[in-house]
């Protein structure tokens, strides 16, 4: 067994993207702390990876929508100096329109996708800065930049993840901590069943496997990408998008309204 790279804590680790991150990171030399609601799935994954990788793998059954469970994972991230990487993957989605959606489910989505992710990121970042090293991976979605594709509340939560991640990377870049946000397109996970649109209803040509997604995301991390869109063929398209966005900066705040509104500004 090779020397450990530290512990990677992965939320939403029992299936889908989180489970593949667990597999890949264990094979890269990380010990693991796997967090999800489903104890049985966590135990099965941990047992398999222990045999296949000989890494130390711990499981923590927790529902991040419950304040006590969220606080428990926060405390682990704050206090355990062995943790060197957080994969903030737990999340839930929706495909129905806002008017057709259940308000309580929208609240729960915001709580998990935004509040829980933010609190765990802050806890991990606090620990990482104290250690002078660490990596934070936040899992967003391409709906952050294409909000009309699915439910607007879901898109809003993922737009937050992108903006938060980029801001956090700017804040921490000189403190030895790197932040990556991953924006998956359609991916073959249970997300679609939970969201109400089984993945087999989507064209095969737009659906990426979880294995390919995670492998591409980790390759992007190794290449120093701050924003990784595994399905985007040409990274220059993202560069152009960012250049256009940044070009707005000097004109986003002025004393006078733009001339097109026909308002005479006070002297």
Automatic annotation (TrEMBL):
GO terms for molecular function: oxidoreductase activity. It comes from the Bacteria. It comes from Pseudomonas reactans. Belongs to the short-chain dehydrogenases/reductases (SDR) family. The keyword Kinase does not apply. InterPro entries: NAD(P)-bd_dom_sf (IPR036291), SDR_fam (IPR002347), VLCFA-Steroid_DH (IPR051019). This is SDR family oxidoreductase. Keywords: Oxidoreductase.
